[in-house]
Amino acid sequence: MTTTILAVRHLLRLALRSDPARLARAAAMIAAGFLSTPLIALCLKSLTTAAIQHQLGAAVRLALATAALLVFELMMNHFAHLSYFELGDLCEVELQNDLISLTHGAGSLEQLDTPGYADTLALVREELPRTRASLEAVLQTGGLALQMGLTTVLLGALNPWLLLLPLVGAVPVLAGNRAQRLVDRAREEAAPRIRLGRHLLETATTQASVKEIRLSGAEAVLIDRHRSDWAATSRALGRAQGRAALLRAAGQFAFAAAYGGAIYLVVQQALHGGAGLGDVILVIALAAQVSLQVATALGLLTILQDAGHTMRRIRTLRTLAATGTGPASTGTDPGPSDLPVVLTQGIRLEHVSFSYPDSDRRILDDVTLDIPAGTALAVVGENGAGKSTLLKLLCGLYRPTSGRILVDGADLAAATPADWQRRVSTLFQDFARLELRLRDNTGIGDLDRIDDDRALHQALEAAEAGPVLDRVSGGLDGLLGRGYGDGAELSGGQWQKLGLARTLLRRSPLLVALDEPASALDATAEHALFERFADLVADARTETGAVTVLVSHRFSTVRMADLIVVLERGRVSEAGTHAQLAAADGLYAELYRLQAKVYA
Ligand SMILES: Nc1ncnc2c1ncn2[C@@H]1O[C@H](COP(=O)(O)OP(=O)(O)OP(=O)(O)O)[C@@H](O)[C@H]1O
């Protein structure tokens, strides 16, 4: 029941915040519509009595009143629907915005990697489109409560024993409640498998993976896997639904017995002269209404419980996000002022180790590294060595499991991640392909300059993305991608150049983090890009003492760095300049020679 109350409270608060006038109008119309139903039964009783007593004029007036009430009831429901339709959409948008804030509210990304968090997030995302139906259920529950109250008063006035009827009506409600819990539990247990099913469907049908799947002939495997996962899921859900249906049927059977008893009671009363035929008609009509009310209450309860679970999940996400945003366990107060505006000493990693959530595997293992201000650092190593992870830690997207990252001596853990991230300019391997306007795509790198056409053009040019601009009809305001509109289709390298333009748009960063920034570029574009970058790094260096960290497998680029670090299974195995590492004849020298031989 607390889940239901939670849903009612949360949704009403949302609706009140979104449009109080519309909420009041919808509630008044629903209440009027619901209250007219028992009044129709009352009119029928009087109509029957007038007809028996041959009062033709009164009977006609009552028949007209009954018809008018019926029309009024339908009209009220119809007009109320118009009011809460839009209100429901407004509430859904509010909840969607809440969800976006919660996803980004977590200071680090650890929460998003936790399966429990990911499941909750996926469930909430799926459930949000039901917001309108949930709000409708809240309003209808209010109307129904009024209707049940009036019905109870009318029944009690006829015979106090009839007051038991709405009470027995609670039996199927409680049984329905329990049945719903059974189904909910099964659904939550099946959530990871449902997610997997969706992922398989997405993998098998999205443009990016279709090519590979077709060429490898893997569709049969995918279909098999998809089929067996769904079969297991629907078996478990089916079992729970079966048990729930039995429980619901038992509750409804109890009410059916009480309904028969109520009619028998009033018929007996009429036979002994204690009630008229009109009263019998009234009880038949009201008892039927009680039955309908109970069935409606059951349906509404199910919707409200579902909505309550959604609200509870949102609350869980909020709690987790709140625990994620705080500074790490240093106990000190986060102080934006602790972070420098200009780097003078540099960034230091001190015995940094890291494991992803719910895993004991150390991806970084006791890494200690000094990156002096103004340094261009290249990180190399084999696949899975931990290079991207190191970059994510430097960007404050994750916090070290142990050890510290110091920026000019200030512990990153003591600052709010957002504060540090404002001073970081990044481009990751899995860069975002934002199917929005070209302006948004680039401007998101520095939102203050999203409308500054000159700055956007400069960033696009610096990233060698000028030709992209020519391909997009509408220029900066033209749409990219075909996801939901007829936008310009770009190649992988062109998308990557836009990512670079975003990186370059950010002003005065203290850290420029680049994870394979040229992986999708051709050799000429890569060369031009790094020449451009060398200039920019030099500018940033003199301006803010910024550190540039580059992860790359291309040694022709890596060798230009001031400092090169080799990562091996999460540990720093070598560090130095190209000349020093080449002379040391270790892993770096071996990898460099191998690549040079291939290009030769
Ligand atoms: N979100 C995550 N959750 C759990 N494990 C992860 C996650 N991201 C990466 N890993 C694991 O961490 C290890 C290091 O990954 P990382 O991406 O840092 O390697 P990398 O050196 O950048 O590799 P590559 O050269 O292939 O890009 C890998 O074994 C990977 O499976």
TrEMBL record:
Tell me the SUPFAM superfamilies matching this sequence: ABC transporter transmembrane region, P-loop containing nucleoside triphosphate hydrolases
Q: Which GO terms describe its molecular function?
A: ATP binding
Q: Please report the stretch or stretches of sequence annotated as the ABC transmembrane type-1 domain.
A: 26-306
The principal location of this protein is membrane
Q: How does it sit in the membrane?
A: Multi-pass membrane protein
Keyword annotations for this protein? ATP-binding, Membrane, Nucleotide-binding, Transmembrane, Transmembrane helix
Please name the PANTHER family in this protein's record: ATP-BINDING CASSETTE SUB-FAMILY B, ATP-BINDING CASSETTE SUB-FAMILY B MEMBER 6
- Name of this chain's protein: ATP-binding cassette domain-containing protein
